[in-house]
Amino acid sequence: MNKASIRRQKRSTKPLPDPDAPRAQQYDSLAPELMREYLATEVDKKDLKVAGVWALVFHFFLFFIVIPTARVEPIPLRDQMATTIVKRYKPPAPPSRPKKRVKKKTSPIPIPDPTPDDPEPIVDEESEVEFGDPDAEFDVGLPNSPPGPGGARAGAVAMGSGGLIAPIKMTEVLPEYTPAATRAGIQGDVYIEAVVTINGGVTEPKLIRGLPDDELNKRALEAVAKWTFRPGYKDGQPVPVIALFTVTYRIH
């Protein structure tokens, strides 16, 4: 219980003035009491103000005592660097390429030379091979065999006979190389004997000496059969003539 409560309790226990007494007497008896009540009220107000001020001061210091200032601890830079991870990109391995099969070179099977005593054509291994028409040369020479008894050869005149005007070539057909002969590098001369008729055509071509390639020999025979000539003359008359033709295959 505080002092103000004790004072109120003391004041409440004192007797009140007599109501039957004169009014002036009643006022005189109440004056000291009213003064004391007023003074007590002022003291109570002053005490409340002082108490309020002390309460504010107390709570102000209590706030700083109970709630300390928060302190942020700095993180060492070394610890931050320790957590750094550097990743290096590793490209995937390239897919393995399939191994190429190396084709073995097959050596051409040697063909027996039908004329072993004759000189063989020289093949230039460093020459550039081109597929197409060969650079063919055509010669008309003396036949190796005399005129036969039958066919176009009967009554034909051999080249070199006295008084004979030789046939003159008008048109020619060029044989073509085969791919196999081009790859093998086969080249040389093919000798063919045939009859130039009085009409300028060529009949009965016969292989005298060829190359080690049957297809090239065959194409040479077919080409010669398509040639045309101005016929040979003897004693002013056209006569069939047996002649020797040379077809030359060359690789450029």
Automatic annotation (TrEMBL):
It is found in: Cell inner membrane. Residues 1-13, 97-106 have a biased composition (Basic residues). Residues 115-128 have a biased composition (Acidic residues). Its main location: membrane. Pfam families: TonB_C (PF03544). SUPFAM superfamilies: TolA/TonB C-terminal domain. Keywords: Cell inner membrane, Cell membrane, Membrane, Protein transport, Transmembrane, Transmembrane helix, Transport. Residues 1-25, 88-128 are annotated as: Disordered. Residues 162-252 form the TonB C-terminal domain. NCBIfam families: tonB_Cterm (TIGR01352). Belongs to the TonB family. This is TonB C-terminal domain-containing protein.
